[in-house]
Amino acid sequence: MKKSIMLFASLLLGSAAALAQMTCVVAHRGYWDTDGSAQNSIRALVKADSIDCYGSEFDVWMTADKKLVVNHDADINGVHIETSKARDVLAQKLKNGENVPTLEQYLDRALSLRTRLILELKPHADKKLEEEAVKAIMKLVKERGLEANMEYITFSPEAFANLIKYAPKGTPVFYLAGNLSPREIKAMGGAGIDYHYSVLKRNPWWIAECHALNLRVNAWTVNDPKDIQWCIDHEVDIITTNAPKLVQQMLIEQ
Question: What are the structural domains of the chain?
C-alpha cells in the first residue's frame, strides 16, 4: 500500500513538472492568417480563442484625445494615431472590413473568451501620454474584471516600468527590446523576457538563467519550423507566432 501511494505521488509530481515545462502558444496579433480575419481585429481574437491558444497578442495606442485603440503601426491609412483624434482613427478599415477597434470593444469581446490577453503597449513619442495610457488601460481592465486574464508587453523602458508600477501585484509584465539581461529584468520586477528568437539564439544561456530566477521566456515571432523546433528543444515557455496551429501541431508531435 505504501509503495502504491509513493508511486502515485511520484506520478503526480511528474505530471506537474511536465505541465510546468509545457510550451504555450500565443497568436501574434491574433489568429489573423485565416478566412475573414485581419491583424489586430476582433475576429482575430475570437479565432485565437477558437483554436485554444494560450494567449492572443494585440497592440494598443492612445490617440491625441485620450482614446485607446488597437492597431500595430503608428499610422493607419495615413492617419497618425498618437497625434490624431479618435474619430479619424476609428473610421479606418482593417483588411477584413472591420473598423479599427477601441480597447473597450476588444475587452468587451474578450469577456466570453478563455484565451489570455497579451497587451502590447506601443512606445509613444510623448511619454506623458504613454503613462496616461498605462493608467487608462488598468482602469478599463479593472472595470471589466479581466485583471487575472491580462499580460503586458512593451518595447518602451518607460512603459515597462509604469506597467509594473500600476498593474496589480503579480500581473505578468514582459520586456521586448532584447537588451536587458534576466537579472536586470528580475531587479525591475518583470515576469520575464519576451525577445525575438534570434536574441535567444545568440544568448541561449539566458533561458536557463531565467528559469533559475523563476522568470518566464517568450520568443517572438517564430514562424519557421526549424526555429519553432529550436525554441521547443531549448524549453522556451511561450512561443509567439503567426502560425499558431503549426506550433500546436509540432508540440503535439514531440
Answer: 24-252 (3.20.20.190)
pLDDT digits (tens, 9 = 90+) for 167-225: 999 999 999 999 999 999 999 999 999 999 999 999 999 999 999 999 999 999 999 99
| Distance (Å, whole) CA 61 – CA 81 | 7
In the DSSP assignment, the letter for residue 103 is: H
Burial tier of 149 (Cβ tally within 10 Å: 0-12, 13-18, 19+): middle
- Pick the range with the lowest mean pLDDT from 14-18, 146-150, 177-181, 201-205: 14-18
Give percent above pLDDT 70 in the chain: 92
Give the three-class secondary structure for 124.
Answer: coil
d(CA 180, CA 234): 20
pTM: 0.92
Alpha helices in the chain (DSSP H): 2-21, 42-50, 86-90, 103-110, 127-143, 157-166, 182-188, 197-202, 205-212, 225-233, 244-252
